[in-house]
């Protein structure tokens, strides 16, 4: 008799949530999400700027190392079509080109590597004189040094400074 009573006692017990408990949990979830989303958006904007700065560092370091290794002139420039340099948009794919340019066009077979474009909505500007970054055989961009300004969403930005000796340093964060 005790075993039968135990079975019916457990069988009549219901498991689950009431409507009020469910609504409280949903309301708490909405409040937490509303509190976290602005922080996530700011973090995402900072991450996009950091990723673009890293992409520029990789392209410029690879260009400098290639110039030193091959003991020749290497040019790093934005190239959306992979045939010529277009200095207007440094957030475009970056081309690493062996030898001097003829105007803005590459020589046949001179394209060594393309570093693909990074995130959406990040803009990169470099000197306004229309010159690409040109490394000599010793890895020095004499006369082609300058500051890259990277601007992302929510007014987040960073600077990369290319010295006359070919070294890159972070110029710190900036507002755009």
Automatic annotation (TrEMBL):
Q: List the InterPro entries.
A: N_methyl_site, Pilin-like, T2SS_GspH
This protein's source sits in the domain of life called Bacteria
Compartments annotated for it: namely: Cell inner membrane
Q: Which GO annotations describe the biological process of this protein?
A: protein secretion by the type II secretion system
Task: Specify the protein's topology with respect to the membrane.
Answer: Single-pass membrane protein
Q: Which UniProt keywords apply?
A: Cell inner membrane, Cell membrane, Membrane, Methylation, Transmembrane, Transmembrane helix
Statement: the UniProt record of this protein carries the keyword Transcription regulation: no
A Gene Ontology term for the protein's cellular component: plasma membrane
For the General secretion pathway GspH domain, which residue ranges apply? 52-164
Q: Does the keyword DNA repair apply?
A: no
Q: What is this protein called?
A: Type II secretion system protein H
């Amino acid at each position: 008799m005790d075993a039968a009573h135990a079975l019916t006692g457990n069988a009549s017990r219901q498991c689950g949530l009431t409507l009020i408990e469910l609504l409280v949990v949903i309301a708490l979830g909405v409040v937490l999400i509303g509190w976290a989303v602005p922080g996530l958006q700011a973090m995402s904007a900072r991450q996009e700027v950091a990723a673009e700065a890293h992409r520029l560092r990789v392209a410029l370091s690879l260009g400098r190392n290639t110039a030193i290794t091959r003991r020749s002139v290497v040019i790093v420039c934005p190239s959306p079509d992979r045939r010529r340099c277009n200095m207007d948009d440094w957030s475009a794919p970056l081309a690493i080109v062996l030898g001097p340019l003829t105007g803005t066009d590459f020589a046949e077979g001179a394209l060594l590597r393309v570093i693909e474009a990074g995130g959406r909505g990040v803009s990169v500007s470099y000197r306004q004189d229309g010159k690409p970054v040109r490394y000599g055989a010793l890895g020095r961009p004499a006369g082609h040094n300058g500051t890259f300004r990277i601007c992302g969403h929510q007014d987040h930005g960073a600077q990369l400074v290319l010295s006359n000796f070919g070294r890159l340093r972070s110029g710190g964060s900036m507002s755009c």
